[in-house]
């Protein structure tokens, strides 16, 4: 009688979703009131079902997971369970072996984490959008005021900056300095080169 009272207190009157599952057949041996309310079935319906009726994994996958729980190789699982109304919910499951009337069964506690997962996905999407926005900020866009003579660029604070400095600050671009054929002819007529000259060759920076 005392053991029965303890069972009722710990299992039947618990506010968490709880199931007792046969590890070999997957039969739902017992379900507390909260489990019946959560899944949308009566106790009679629940105890005439197997875990395969609510778990979206394949029978072989479910069998493997139950084996892990039975052998105590693992006690924490993430599944997707289907309710009586057809809704698919993300669940976090803790399951381990108990002895009941000389038989080893799985005592299982189920937590719905659908809302938590939804918020995590929204957070990840927000981070992705922010990263994309930061990348776009680094790209040059719009009309850029540039001096027609010296080619310096005026930034958003009104300061004039060298072209290279401005572009480096507002983009991921890097510069490799050289000299074009026209400038080489004008500045170094004695070289008379028709191809760009590397700055290392001229000593220029």
Automatic annotation (TrEMBL):
Stated name of the protein: PAS domain-containing protein
At the top level, the lineage of the source is Bacteria
Name the residues that span the membrane: none
For the PAS domain, which residue ranges apply?
3-76
Q: Which organism is it from?
A: Desulfoplanes formicivorans
UniProt keyword Coiled coil, yes or no: yes
**Which taxonomic lineage does the organism of this UniProt entry have?**
Bacteria, Pseudomonadati, Thermodesulfobacteriota, Desulfovibrionia, Desulfovibrionales
NCBIfam families named among the record's database cross-references: sensory_box
Entries under SMART domains matching the protein: PAS (SM00091)
Instruction: Write the record's keywords in alphabetical order, separated by commas.
Output: Coiled coil
Coiled coil ranges: 116-143
